Amino acid sequence: MEVGSIKALVVSLLAWINLYAGYDVPDQFPVIAFVPHASLEQMSCTGPCPILGWYPDNSSGVVYLDRDLALKTNVCARSILLHELVHYMQDKSGSFAEDSQILRWQLRELEAHQIQSAFLAENGVRGGLGRNFAPRAFMGPNC
Questions:
Q1: How far apart are CA 108 and CA 56, in angstroms?
Q2: Are the beta carbons of 80 and 65 closer than 8 angstroms?
Q3: What is the 3-state secondary structure (H, E, C) of 9-71?
Q4: pTM for this structure?
Q5: CA 82/CA 143 separation, integer angstroms
Q6: Starting from the edge strand earliest in sequence, which strands make up the sheet with 62-66, in order?
């Protein structure tokens, strides 16, 4: 996807999150880095895992996405970016900052998955998140 298209997509997703969840759109947008799947696994997992996107909990301002995500044509792939942008907006707003580390992680993930599910439903995709919120069928016929 071209840089201009990515920027436009990020702006539209941030606006959607703002309207749906009430998070303020930040003045500065995150950097979107497309990386090989193996790099995502190395950064965020202890071994092979089905990760497709990651926003590290370190205020880096970088959203990492699997380079094979078809953001232009696949609404489920766009929902992965949306999920990570929710984390970016949570970070910028200080959401859950007063909670313990584990509770903070749980609350951030729960909210991001709820917002992602609402986005998918609004775009005609039901049941896009499987057990434990694993991204199932994200590249399948439902998308």
A1: 12
A2: yes
A3: HHHHHHHHHHHHHCCCCCCCCCEEEEECHHHHHHHHCCCCCCCCEECCCCCCCEEEEECCCCC
A4: 0.90
A5: 15
A6: 31-35, 62-66, 53-54
The answer, yes or no, to whether residue 32 has pLDDT greater than 60, is yes
For the chain, the first-to-last Cα distance in angstroms comes to: 18
Give the type of residue at 142. Answer: N
The answer, yes or no, to whether residue 138 has pLDDT greater than 70, is: no
Helix (H), strand (E), coil (C) string for 63-127: EEEECCCCCCCCHHHHHHHHHHHHHHHHHHHCCCCCCCHHHHHHHHHHHHHHHHHHHHHHCCCCC
pLDDT digits (tens, 9 = 90+) for 36-76: 999 999 998 888 888 899 999 767 899 999 999 989 988 98
3-class SS of residue 132: helix
Alpha-carbon distance of 118 to 115, in angstroms, equals 5
Nearest to 3 by CA among 35, 33, 46, 42: 33
* Token digits of residue 141: 């016929």
Residue bearing tokens 């696949």: 74
